[in-house]
Design a protein that fits this description.
It contains 18 helices and 18 strands. The protein is an alpha+beta fold. It is elongated. The protein starts with a helix and ends in an 8-residue tail after the last strand.
Length: about 525
């Protein structure tokens, strides 16, 4: 140690017991902040930004991202939890609580002189056992119950983030959206669910549009605002005059020459426009009542727009690239990169395309598609932070349903898994010899933090609820806490489910991080800057 002191006499050093106290203090601190957020009855936190903007949320991920955390250990735990959210979309608050509680329980034994290494060995044994128990608690998604379970998974995830009424409104929308974008044997691409925000009316009017909503409208006053029975051409073709890549100039002798040069220059754009108009004339006749909509990723200049408007076509320019992918999936057809080979097969089809003007913003709705494999969740809300809250919740709900579909199973929620694992680990203790038992004991007690906090947040006495749960749990393997009555219930009866992969990731990451923090016996704060003095 002396060598390091010589190198940098200004380094702050925390030794053995003190280092552990720093780590456990940090973990407890961040645990206390997030404790009250857990579960459907959790409270909200209000974050005020530097510019005075407000965010009201109880989504652990949002809180950990937005809060300024000074303590190094606490920020390590926060990063681990946000990584959990990035991978699985849920379980941030639980991760923070578990890490804090594992360290708290271990501290009881370490303060009596037990070496941290022995506890971490016990933790490892307990983790393996906990993962085995998780496998036994799986509930497969079968035919009849599948839709109900998916809807319940979604409402369990949403219920911990938004008001129960809003959660009930959003759940069916989310399940339907995931089912729409699911293509057999392919991974589910949630980017094919467009999330469009409209600052308008109340959040209870959020709806699923089986098609697309684009956030801009036609660029010409004479274009039709509403078309039915439409052919849809998605293309990536420039329909505007562009300057040449190299510097070039026109040389002409007379005014007539100039005219011919100018018309020649515009001609290649007009040819393209003409090709599209010819296709429209061929396919849309008065008899079949079909109409034509062009969605172009590049620009369309005023002359071209005018030509389309005269033909009664609707043209949108500069649509987002992501929307081109979505359009092809929603309406069918192919995104075209040239106008040479235009045929009917390249076109998509939609029953209704209309423009909706809201204040200064225009929205274009593409609806009534035959077999949409890309849909839009249209979120409404009176103000910015309501929309943001709904958006975060919808994102987590989509991920929860996606995880359930990909895992093919779910696990009971309401703290049932934690109670069952606690009871199983207590039995497992009897088969383990030596001091590692103490580590398993600490792990088993640590797991109970989840049902404990669920009960506390719902306003019940934690000890009383835990005693009830353990009594019932000895008889029935899946028993969770009912936040409405404080009694023990079977979570399946109330439709409370969690994702398998969320629990798996949680057990793995919490155990590893708690073990690593316990094994730290020296913390040095010595940045490069302090070496200079």
């Amino acid at each position: 140690m002396a060598a390091i002191s010589m190198l940098n006499p200004k380094a702050e050093v925390a030794r053995a017991a003190q280092a552990l106290a720093v780590n456990i203090g940090g973990a407890k601190g961040i645990q206390d902040v997030l404790k009250t957020n857990l579960g459907p009855k959790g409270t909200m936190k209000m974050l005020v930004g530097g510019a005075g903007d407000i965010k009201i949320t109880k989504d652990g991920n949002v809180l950990l991202h937005e809060m300024q955390i000074q303590h190094p250990t606490a920020s390590l735990i926060a990063r681990a939890s946000t990584a959990q959210d990035d991978i699985t979309g849920d379980g941030t608050t639980s991760t923070v609580l578990l890490i804090g509680e594992f360290l708290k329980q271990a501290d009881l034994y370490i303060s009596e002189g037990l070496h941290p290494r022995i506890i971490t060995e016990g933790f490892d044994l307990a983790k393996t056992k906990a993962l085995e128990i998780l496998e036994t608690m799986k509930i497969s998604l079968t035919g009849e119950e599948r839709a109900t379970i998916l809807s319940n998974v979604s409402s369990t995830s949403l219920g911990t983030k938004v008001h129960p009424l809003l959660a009930a409104q959003l759940s069916p929308i989310i399940v339907e959206a995931v089912e729409a974008v699911k293509i057999d044997n392919n991974p589910i691409d949630l980017h094919m669910v467009e999330m469009m925000e409209m600052q308008h009316r109340s959040e209870m009017e959020t709806q699923l549009v089986k098609g697309l909503v684009l956030d801009h409208g036609g660029r010409h006053p004479d274009m039709p605002k509403r078309l039915e029975n439409c052919y849809i051409l998605t293309c990536n073709v420039s329909l505007e005059y562009e300057k040449t890549e190299v510097n070039s100039g026109f040389f002409y002798k007379s005014a007539a020459d100039r005219e011919t040069l100018v018309t020649a220059e515009r001609k290649f754009i007009e040819d393209r426009v003409q090709k599209i108009i010819e296709l429209k004339k061929k396919l849309c006749t008065k008899e079949n009542g079909k109409t034509f909509v062009i969605l172009n990723q590049k620009g369309v200049d005023p002359f071209s727009l005018d030509a389309f408007a005269k033909e009664g076509m609707m043209a949108l320019r500069r649509t987002k690239r992501r929307n081109m992918e979505r359009l092809a999936l929603a309406c069918g057809g192919v995104a075209m990169n040239s106008v040479e080979e235009l045929t009917e097969d390249c076109l998509g089809h939609a029953g209704l395309v209309y423009e909706h003007v809201l204040g200064e913003n225009k929205f274009t709705f593409v609806e009534q598609c035959a077999n949409p494999q890309s849909v839009t969740i249209l979120m409404k809300g009176p103000n910015k932070h309501t929309l943001q809250q709904t958006k975060d919740a919808v994102r987590d709900g989509l991920r929860a349903v996606k995880n359930a579909v990909e895992d093919g199973c779910v696990v009971p929620g309401a703290g049932a898994y934690e109670v069952a694992t606690h009871i199983a680990l207590k039995k497992f203790l009897e088969t383990v010899k030596g001091r590692a038992r103490l580590g398993i004991q600490a792990y088993a007690d640590g797991l109970l933090i989840i049902p404990k906090v669920l009960a506390q947040n719902a306003g019940y006495d934690a000890q009383e609820v835990i005693v009830k749960l353990l009594e019932e749990g000895a008889v029935n393997p899946t028993i969770g806490v009912d936040c409405d009555s404080g009694e023990a219930i079977v979570p399946q009866d109330k439709g409370i489910y969690d994702n398998l992969r969320v629990k798996k990731q949680m057990i793995n990451s919490c155990t590893v991080i708690a073990s690593n923090l316990l094994l730290v016996d020296e913390i040095m704060r010595a940045g490069m800057s302090s070496l200079k003095g």
